[in-house]
Amino acid sequence: xxxxSNHKENEEGLSDPGVRFQSYLHGGTSSLLSTLxxxxxxxIYKTVFRQQIHNTPVRLAVGQLYKEGPLKLYRGxxxxxxxxxxxxxxxxxxxxxxxYQLSPSSQNVIPMSALAGFxxxxxxxxxxxxxxxxxxxxxxxxxxxxxxxLKSILVRLKTQGVALGYYxxxxxxxARNSLGSALYFGLKGPMCAFVARQGLSPFTSxxxxxxxxxxxxxxxxxxxxxxVANMQTQVGGEMKGVLACWRMLWKSRQQSVxxxxxxxxxxxxxxxxxxxxxxxxxxxxxKHSG
Length: 290
Description:
76% of the residues lie in helices and 0% in strands. It has 290 residues and is mainly α.
C-alpha cells in the first residue's frame, strides 16, 4: 500500500488531520470510480451467488438468470454499488487512522498495517452487514414473489429483530472482513514492492499487487462467503446458528471441498477487476497528493 510504503517520508504530515481526511477521500473516490466495473461484473457476481445458494454448475446458473430475463438480472445491484463507495471510504480511511495511532513512529509498519486492517474490517462488518443482508435477500429468486420490492424487504427484516433481521450472519461476516482486511493491508505493500522490482510502472504494480492479494484472500475466505450467502438469503422460518448452518452447508456439498468452492473461479475474475482497479487508483491518488 502506497500510503504505508511512504510512511516514513510523510511522518510529520501524518499528524495533520487533513492528511487523515485525505485517506477517507481517496478511498471513497477510488471505490466510486470502480463502480462501473462493478456494474459490468454484476452478472458474474450473481452467477456465483446462485452457485453458492443452489450448488449448481455455472451453465445451469447462467440458464436460470437467462430465463428470468434482463430486468431481474440487475435486481439487487443497488446495495453493492452503494457499499463499494462507502466501503472504500471507511476501509482505507479508518485503516490509515488506526495505523497512525498504532505506529506513529513508522516502526513495524507491515504487522501494524495488518492489525489496523483487522480493526477496520471489524468496523466494516458492523456498518455493512445490513447492506449485505438486503443484497442477498434481493438476489435470491425464491424471494421475488413474497418480497417483490426493496421496501417490502426492509419492512420484513425490521420485524425479525436486529440479530435475525439486518444482522443475520454477523459473526462469519466479521471473521471474513477482519481477516480479509488484515491480509490485504499486510500483504499489499510487500507484494507491490516485489512487483515494482520487475520493472513495471507504479500504476501497473499497484494493479497487479491488488489483484494478486485480493485473489489469495478471496480463495482463502471463500467458504465464509458461501456460508454468509446461505444464511442471509432466508427470511423467516427457523433460523439456525452459525455451526448448525455450517454443518447443513457442508452436508449439502456432500462434504466435498470442490463443491464448496463451486463458483470460486468467477470470484477470482471479479477480484481482478474490482480490487485491482481500486488499489491502483487509490495508490495513484496517494502518490500525487503526497
